[in-house]
């Protein structure tokens, strides 16, 4: 068996898309990243709020109000 693979020596042509397409893709990815960051902040806010409520309820139970 011959395990040697011949590599084509031709230069590859540029992709058939323009820089404008890449700019649009970069813009969309930036917007998605912004949305994910905002969602992450909202989730952490909910987690901290739930923790604060639990802490207040525990304090209330310890004090006996």
Detailed description of the structure:
The chain is mainly alpha-helical. It has a domain at 34-65. The chain has one helix and no strands. The longest helix has 45 residues, at 19-63. The chain is elongated and about 80 Å long. The model has no long low-confidence stretch (mean pLDDT 87). The chain crosses the membrane at residues 43-63. Keywords: Membrane, Transmembrane, Transmembrane helix.
In short:
With 65 residues, the protein is mostly helical.
Tell me, briefly, the overall form.
elongated
Give the quaternary arrangement of the chains. single chain
The Cα radius of gyration reads 28 Å
DSSP strand tally? 0
Order of helices and strands: H
Largest sheet composition: none
Keywords: Membrane, Transmembrane, Transmembrane helix
């Amino acid at each position: 068996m011959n395990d040697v693979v011949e590599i084509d020596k031709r230069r590859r042509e540029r992709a058939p898309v323009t820089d404008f397409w890449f700019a649009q893709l970069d813009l969309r990815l930036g917007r998605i990243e912004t949305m994910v960051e905002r969602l992450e902040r909202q989730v952490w806010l909910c987690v901290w709020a739930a923790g604060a409520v639990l802490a207040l309820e525990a304090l209330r139970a310890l004090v006996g109000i």
